[in-house]
Amino acid sequence: MVIVKYALREVKKHPGKYLPIYIQIIVSVIILGFLAVTFQKAHLFAEQMEYCTEHRNMYATIDRSDAMTIMNTLSTEESNIPCQELYQYITERANVYIHMINPVIWNGEQVDILQVNQLFCELYQIDVKQGRMFLNEELDGHIEEEKAIPVLVGEKLAKKYPIGTKLTNQALDQSIFEIVGILKDGAFYLNPSTDQEIISLDSSFVVPWIPKDSLNSGYRNINLFHVMQLETDNPEVLKEISLKSKELGLFDLEFISFKEQIEVVEEYYQSVYMRDCAMLMALLLYCIVGSITMLLQYINTHMRYASIHMLCGAVQRDISLQMLVQISTPILIGLVLVLIVFRNIFAMIAGIIFGIILLSIILAIPVFIWNRLQVSQIFKRYD
């Protein structure tokens, strides 16, 4: 304990000598943490994209009907029956991934909620880090009138809308919504038919799709068929669906495969991650070289000083412990900052490994010099 106090007092007494190396080490630890987080995100993204691209035979829906025909078809309540029939026809022949945005009014503010079904959640691995996911009956659209509609919020909205918050839709049917879970960081989905970018859910409200006429026009919702994603191994099924839609007097549907679009998205974001990692690695290498250079200078300036103490009765263990305390201080500061900024165990592990390497250098070099040279020789070499 006395050695620790003495080592820290030495740092406090000569801040100009220690501050440059402290800053260099702290910055190195933080950059390494940032690099570790970036690598982890790239790895998780690759895993998620690999899972998504396993669904090779997926198709996006395109409606070739003119706008007037679409509006006339969906504006009448009578069209709800043929729309529901078409929906059931599609679900019997293909896997349907529903994601449709619908506006609601909460506390006088219009908010867009993303309505999804179970297959969509499974495809994009939508899950929560706190609270609960949707129940199976909720994802099937079976929610009793008096019960609140469950809502998952993105992590950026978690503070404003904590779990348990209840909200009333001040438009249409006065539906009650309740926040039941917070999405995992980095949750996303793709809509390659209209966009080649990842659509983040960090600032989104996600609810199970409920075909409720007073809430979202039920099966007549214009977004239901127009953003529907289908998966089928038989392209003939798509032709049958298109013919069925025309037979019911609804839409002129076409289907396009978005396998290539998904691959474009994956390649683009992988290149972005690789570019970021390359820049961080170059910066980290610069910091590490600077840190090692300063460590060598630190050792050079302390060898003569340490030898004087050894002549006065100090032992190698005490001198080594003093150096260990002085260099571990900026490492610990860097690790604390990494924990506060990133809150990521992988970043902490990377920082700890980096710290162990630096401390090993600090311990190994002086011990090697002491074992190789006499104290008198050290005085001459480090004069």
From TrEMBL:
Taking every annotated instance into account, which residue ranges of this chain make up the domain MacB-like periplasmic core?
103-208
Q: Which GO cellular component term is one of those annotated?
A: plasma membrane
Pfam families, per the entry: MacB_PCD
Which GO MF terms does the UniProt record name?
A: transmembrane transporter activity
- Which keywords has UniProt assigned to this entry? Membrane, Transmembrane, Transmembrane helix
Q: Where are the transmembrane segments?
A: 21-39, 278-299, 319-342, 348-371
> Cross-referenced PANTHER family, in alphabetical order?
ABC TRANSPORTER PERMEASE YTRF, MEMBRANE COMPONENT OF TRANSPORTER-RELATED
Output this protein's name: MacB-like periplasmic core domain-containing protein
